[in-house]
Here is the input.
Amino acid sequence: MAKQPKGREISGILILDKPTGMSSNHALQRVKRMFGARKAGHTGSLDPLATGLLPICLGEATKFSQFLLDSDKRYQTIGQLGVLTDSSDADGKVLETKPCDHVTLADVEAQLPQFRGLISQVPSMFSALKYKGQPLYKLARAGKTVEVKPRQVTLHNLELMSFENSQVQMDITCTKGTYIRSIVEDLGLALDCGAHVAQLRRLQAGPFVADQMVTLEDLQAIIDDATKDQIVEEGKWPDITPAFPNLDKLLMPADTAVLSLNAVQLAAHEIESLQQGKVIDHATDFAELDVVRVYSSQVTDANAFIGLAEVQQEGRLKAKRLMST
Here is the structure.
């Protein structure tokens, strides 16, 4: 008999405020255990040094995580001038220190325009970008280096928030694949003193913003409150099932990851055809190859979301990624 997978079938998106010093995967596993979820995935790694917004998809919501990976992001960062590290951040080994007392606010402001708009940057060897299936950071920690090709990214906004004590604080909104450490490192090179990321915090990813974040401490407090009256044998874990209703209230619906897409409502027989892999003759006004959100016209609550479909010729629809029936 096949082994039953562990965990419960819970779907939704938790907007986690990841703490510093923790990997994104560690944070993911913590949330997965707390929710007792069968399946979970995050939507774009944050470095252990970094804090802030990390959307974690549970259950069926993992099917739509790619749309968050592809979305724009917003960060606030502090770059420390005068110190170069091998990882371009404060977790790395110091390679060189250079005087930076001569750098003025006007000097910094004069260099920032080159980092706005469409730019070309070389990802750090300590990034999660893969080379022949291996993340670059693993190669870097093993003392290996490979040639990393430049890539084009767009900085929609780069605002200088402050400059004091040789630290540059910036607010940056950018496209996917932008490496903030590369921007800080390149700014240090332009100022001829070097620089590294001292702090990094993500404040937005796609539709999700900082006000929606919850911490691991918030989740643990809910669990502690729900299990406070339990008598637990030594060496055993409390039954966290009573905490699930309040934990689940923190989850965003799966379709919040794709609200930027147009939506269509379908009748029950049309949905059934989509689920069977058929192309349906539901004329739409959207462009061919557009991806649209699909909802049931018979359901009014969150369960109305069926998934995503692709617009074919003459407005017909073909399933792209559907929620499980």
